[in-house]
Amino acid sequence: MSTANPTGPARKAIGDVAPQLADLTDGVLFGQVWEDAALSKRDRSLATCAALIATGKTEQLSFHFPFALQNGVTREELVAMTTHLAFYAGWPSAMSAVAKLRELPVA
């Protein structure tokens, strides 16, 4: 069923444990969804980071915050988004995200 690159990032990271999940991640999520021109990668990164913070999935921010920086989101925008979300998604979620913001390089 694989349409993914057999040496893609997810295949390398989790393919030994969950090969189908790796294929879906490389092929569908990052191969199709993230490449859809309806939203820029920058906008997708902001939406993804906001969703992860709002749902308390902050462990995933170790990947998605640096990825957002690569996609043109600034560190200052990530900090502002996190502060904004404290009021809508809850203080604990924002505070957990701050721990991941600390991992980012300061310009």
Automatic annotation (TrEMBL):
Organism superkingdom: Bacteria
GO molecular function terms attached to this record: peroxiredoxin activity
Annotated Carboxymuconolactone decarboxylase-like domain residues: 19-101
InterPro entries hit by this protein: 4CMD/NDH-1_regulator (IPR052512), AhpD-like (IPR029032), CMD-like (IPR003779)
TM regions (residue ranges): none
Protein name, per record: Carboxymuconolactone decarboxylase family protein
Organism annotation: Ideonella dechloratans
